[in-house]
Design a protein that fits this description.
seven-stranded mixed barrel; alpha/beta; single chain
């Protein structure tokens, strides 16, 4: 089915290249050809973009071929509707996928014009709510990838190049749901590896008006985690504290906030409400200060409530928030370093290559969720003696990460108190053994 104006029409079966009943049995890791064949039959997928806080669902069109393999750069067509020859065609290569607005001409016309360039595919952004498998009877046999994304998420993609000047790079990955429907994963093992360590956070650098770093050795690193909504982080921005601090109502200092990284204290209202107020005041980034040593990836339910947030949203620890607030009063600015280098298993690989290990895990949810559980009294051994042993092991692993250590120390003290024991006494007893 497809929509023509206000009328829903049926697309003749001969005009669809999609087979919704195709076998979804996964191919083995050794069967690369089988993986590629499976990938070619998938009719939906996810767009994984570097630094983006969540994946974006896409639908394949009824015409054209499967999405291109490998890492691509996503660029907007000029003109945006791609209903005439593109003025930026000379800059396009096979490493590019075009983002195009729906409207003004047929989907097939857009695909034909895009295919005249060296780009490897086109993603059409819907101009109304919903997501469709787009029809293209006037371009049925085109050997070119054609997909579509929802209007709300397409608008988010457009907000970043215009606002921050950062390239959109990542993967267009067909997803296979096994026959049981229990698991939905990238159809190829290669794409599973490429998308398994996407950026969820990183560290902050603070500089004064002269561009000099103001952080002491004891302050670093200042870690942050992205929310599950919003957009990717920008370059350096001046710091400012929201007034009121919890940003649960229109900001009183909107003139100061515009174009800056806005510090907001956690509490009193949902995270997405805070983001709405910061965005309405013209803030470019919202940094939420936790009430605890630990940080988490903020979410929103239902998911659509976060799709109007066009600014990056991240959480920092209670300690980091205090440091940033102090720096904001001195006219400091903050910059973001995305954590893309280290990953689970990277230390072993580094050691095998004779290189220095990167540390105890990335700044992501896989690192922080176990610490959050410990802070809530979960995940500890049953025996107090083994609790203390586990504490000692983790303390050694987390050396050099002040917020992680503070979370552990606080969690251990709470656990010992629950057991009716003194944490300091237990630590000393453990040393004396």
């Amino acid at each position: 089915m497809f929509k023509a104006g206000e009328e829903w029409l049926a697309l003749p079966e001969v005009f669809s290249n999609l087979d919704f009943s195709a076998d979804s049995t996964p191919a083995s890791e050794e069967d690369v050809e089988g993986q590629i064949q499976l990938r070619a039959t998938r009719f939906w997928g996810r767009l994984y973009i570097d630094g983006w806080p969540q994946t974006i669902q896409f639908f394949r069109a009824h015409f054209g071929i499967e999405p291109p393999l490998g890492r691509k750069t996503f660029v907007f067509a000029e003109p945006r509707d791609a209903c005439e020859d593109l003025t930026n065609a000379e800059h396009l290569t096979a490493e590019h996928v075009l983002l195009v607005h729906r409207g003004s001409c047929t989907f097939g016309s857009k695909a034909k014009i895009a295919a005249k360039t060296n780009a490897s595919g086109i993603i059409i952004i819907n101009n109304e709510p919903g997501l469709d498998h787009l029809p293209g009877p006037d371009a049925h046999d085109i050997q070119f990838s054609v997909s579509s994304v929802a209007q709300s998420e397409g608008l988010l993609l457009e907000a970043v190049p215009n606002g921050f000047g950062r390239p959109l790079q990542g993967y267009l990955v067909p997803i296979n749901c096994e026959n049981s429907g229990a698991r939905c994963l990238p159809a190829t093992y290669q794409e599973r590896k490429e998308t398994s360590h996407m950026i969820e956070g990183g560290t902050l650098e603070v500089r004064d008006k002269e561009g000099k770093s103001t952080l002491r050795a004891a302050d670093v690193p200042l870690e942050y985690l992205l929310a599950h909504y919003g957009t990717m982080v920008p370059g350096a921005l001046p710091l400012v504290v929201a007034k009121p601090a919890e940003a649960c109502q229109p900001l009183e200092n909107s003139a100061e906030v515009r174009g800056k990284a806005v510090l907001v204290r956690r509490g009193s209202c949902p995270f997405v409400k805070k983001a709405e107020e910061v965005q309405a005041a013209g803030g470019r980034v919202m940094l939420v200060g936790s009430l605890h040593p630990y940080i988490l990836r903020m979410g929103v339910e239902p998911r659509w409530k976060g799709l109007n947030t066009m600014i990056p949203v991240a959480m920092v620890s209670k300690r980091a928030y205090s440091v940033l607030v102090a720096e904001s009063y001195m006219g400091g600015s903050v910059s973001f370093t995305e954590d893309a280098e280290s990953s689970p298993g990277a230390d072993a690989e580094a050691k095998a290559a004779g290189q220095e290990a990167s540390g105890p895990g990335r700044t992501n949810s896989a690192t922080w969720e176990p610490l959050e559980k410990l802070a809530k009294g979960e995940g500890w051994p049953r025996s107090p003696a083994y609790v203390t042993k586990r504490y000692g092991e983790l303390k050694e692993q987390l050396h050099g990460f002040p917020d992680r250590l503070a979370t552990l120390e606080d969690a251990y003290a709470r656990k010992m108190k629950e057991e009716g024991l003194d944490a300091h006494t237990e630590k000393q007893a453990n040393k004396d053994e």
